[in-house]
């Protein structure tokens, strides 16, 4: 299994994609809006992907709630943005925490029913005044302790649905004044203890996603995704994260150079899995071809994540959970 998660082009798996994944088996597939039409189509697609992927491979979706959602109305019910849950917490902390857990469980139930086992949430970045709105309402709060508590609750709900959460974007995207989809942001602050705290308090999550951001206090030359110093000293040691570390999308313009070269660099720097989402055939094959073999540590972390989701899974009655969350958000 190759340490990369990649995208596909459309609503159905093509013969060429299936042949590529049999020849160069990825660690997983991520699906986007271009791959999602309705529940019947999506379930057929995830089943087709399972048939060609190796055992242990993951199916991933970016489904935070709010504006970051691939499964949308009218076929799927919507979820609130993170800052709405944070606002409820400000008024009634117990209700906010419960709404966060319920949101995680409901997103997880939708994802699991569609065939996914990995959801790119919760966002553990701070919502700071003056920062770029690439995070914006995706953040629960400005207070790192509140972000940590609400993010943990969402992750707990996802795990209750049998789905693995991904905390993002480590070591922190909330302070940036640029969108890493479009350019490379630089965070000039020297003291980033507040940014690290939500990740440190959630260091036991099974997955985390890196930030394509330059932090000169730690590495003046390389963004976190490609930096052995940031990954080794900050993420693994200072934060204490020992789960699966996946890159943010290597197609983003924050990174220069070919995605295949960046995938190899990120894995050498200490990431466990490279993420390339565009779904174009040439770069997808190049990324898969460029990746070195999966490390023993990455294999261990992937197995631990699957085991955690199985252990934490609970029987859920979605109708009851929807009704409870609706009441909380209306209060």
SSE order and pairing:
Elements: E1 2-6, H1 15-23, E2 26-31, H2 39-52, E3 58-61, H3 82-91, H4 93-114, E4 118-119, H5 144-160, E5 164-170, H6 193-200, E6 207-210, H7 228-238, E7 244-249, H8 259-269, E8 273-276, H9 281-290, H10 296-312, H11 318-330
Parallel strand pairs: 1-2, 1-8, 2-3, 3-4, 4-5, 5-6, 6-7, 7-8
Helix pairs in contact: 3-4, 4-5, 4-11, 5-6, 8-9
Overview of this protein structure:
By secondary structure, the chain is of the alpha/beta class. The chain has a domain at about 55-255 and about 305-330: TIM Barrel (Alpha-Beta Barrel). Helix content is about 45%, strand content about 10%. It has helices spanning about 15-25, 40-50, 80-90, 95-115, 145-160, 195-200, 230-240, 260-270, 280-290, 295-310, 320-330; strands at about 1-5, 25-30, 60, 120, 165-170, 205-210, 245-250, 275. Strands 1-2-3-4-5-6-7-8 form an eight-stranded parallel barrel, surrounded by five helices. Helix 1 links the parallel strand 1 (about 1-5) and strand 2. Helix 3 packs antiparallel against helix 4 and helix 8 (about 260-270) runs parallel beside helix 9. The longest helix is centred in the first third of the chain and has 22 residues, at about 95-115. It is globular, with a radius of gyration of 18 Å. It starts with a strand and ends with a helix.
Percentage of residues assigned to helices:
40-55%
Q: What is the succession of H and E elements?
A: EHEHEHHEHEHEHEHEHHH
Overall body shape:
globular
- E-strand count: 8
The assigned CATH architecture of the domain at 54-256 and 303-330 is Alpha-Beta Barrel
Structural class: alpha/beta
Give the spatial strand order of the biggest sheet.
1-2-3-4-5-6-7-8
